[in-house]
Amino acid sequence: METARADIREAVMTAFCAVLRDTRLPPLALIELAAAAVGSVYREVADAHCGDQPCPCGWHPRLQADLEALQTTLALSAAPTPQVDLARMVVLGRA
Ligand SMILES: [Zn+2]
User: Fold this and answer.
1) Residue 46 Cα, ligand 1 centroid: separation in angstroms?
2) Which of 29, 61, 70, 86 could form a disulfide with 46 if both were Cys (CB 3.0 to 4.6 A apart)?
3) 41 CA to middle of ligand 1, Å?
């Protein structure tokens, strides 16, 4: 789980830094695009678990509960804490 968390975070940060460098769009606009990407990935994966031939893994999307969980995770992750890895962020930000 921690490796997955780190891998996904690094992919998002790398994309964020590349688009920031290439477009000069405001940082929050890019973070909103990242949030939109997460939402659209959720929709696509959820759709693959509904319908006539759903994925057999057993996950059943529950939009309201799932959105609440995603919003909670977003809020907790964005809140200032001493555990935020600022050193890593600065390094990637200069890439
Ligand atoms: Zn599945």
Assistant:
1) 9
2) 61
3) 13
Mean pLDDT by 10 residues, the chain (95 residues): 95 97 96 97 97 94 97 94 67 60
The Å distance, Cα 82 to ligand 1 centre, comes to 35
Here the tokens at position 68 are 């609440």
pLDDT, residue 75, reads 95
Between the CA of 83 and the centroid of ligand 1 the distance, in Å, is 32
Q: How many CB atoms lie within 10 A of CB 82?
A: 5
Query: Crossing angle, helix 2-23 and helix 27-47, to 10 degrees?
Result: 130
Amino acid identity, position 57: C
Q: Is 56 in contact with 50 (CB distance < 8 Å)?
A: no
Nearest residue to 30 via CA among 41, 19, 14: 19
